Fold this protein.
Amino acid sequence: MRLALYQPDIPQNAGGALRLAACLGLAVDIIEPCGFLWDDKKIRRAGMDYIELATLTRHSSWDAFCQAETTGQGRLVLVSTKGAVSHTAFAFRPDDILLMGRESCGVPDSLHDSIPDRVAVPQCPGTRSLNVVTAAAIVCAEALRQTALLPVFTPTA
Ligand SMILES: C[S@@+](CC[C@H](N)C(=O)[O-])C[C@H]1O[C@@H](n2cnc3c(N)ncnc32)[C@H](O)[C@@H]1O
């Protein structure tokens, strides 16, 4: 299973997503251009040393992402406030690539319409959206739980 970020705007979110992915054992795709420089110190502050543990692939564009071998091996699932089904009602697969939208505006309508599998995290009335990493964490946890890919729980003394 992979976690893909579409043109992230905020370096702290990219760092947080890398940390999330390292902890949960997900590979990460960053689809550029980003709204920040990749060597921005804020990524490291948020991602800390987990960044070295993450399996990261940067793609120069959406087209480059689509042409990548790893993308061809999986099913794209768009995680969107405009998703067609609740994330808990969706049947995830081990080869899924969970695609997160941009903080400022999600993904373009044309891209949204081209991805048939779209899930939303239900929210309380009057709330607009979750932080992108919060939404990713909720959906990744459910997807990993369903596919029995969660890291093995080791109780501490
Ligand atoms: C701040 S939101 C973007 C809001 C933007 N106005 C939109 O409509 O997509 C950034 C990203 O977080 C994810 N996200 C936030 N809340 C979500 C929710 N309730 N369900 C699914 N994805 C969500 C989506 O991937 C979204 O593109």
